[in-house]
């Protein structure tokens, strides 16, 4: 399953699932992509189909392995990954080095186990208000689910996960 970033950073007010769908289509990817975010309807840990959570590796756009499988992202260690394996945007840029994302931080709105944090997910990703808060993770920590709180007015990286495998 591919883990890919949106082509631009976003504040806490985003239509992330739609953006993931649209950018994947424009990139010629045929699978369904969902935002790597907890929402008011769903915990991040359940975004990938049950049948695909255990046996498929999580890879970047070039097929390099980030995680052995989806469940290993949520084993309580904060989604630890090898920072030497790049995360690419749908248009092929490395979010860790490209200046289009000046802040190397990803939104997630979740606990380290992928459960939604209703107090810290920018009002279900519908506000960029400076007073509202969102849970995010600085990529330099080598974790996708590090537990840092930021104002929803920040423009951070938004990741998308291929949520069902199509052969």
From TrEMBL:
Gene3D superfamilies: Mannose-Binding Protein A, subunit A. CDD domains: Endostatin-like. It comes from the Eukaryota. Keywords: Collagen. Residues 1-166 form the Collagenase NC10/endostatin domain. GO terms for cellular component: collagen trimer. This is Collagen alpha-1(XV) chain. The lineage of its organism: Eukaryota, Metazoa, Chordata, Craniata, Vertebrata.
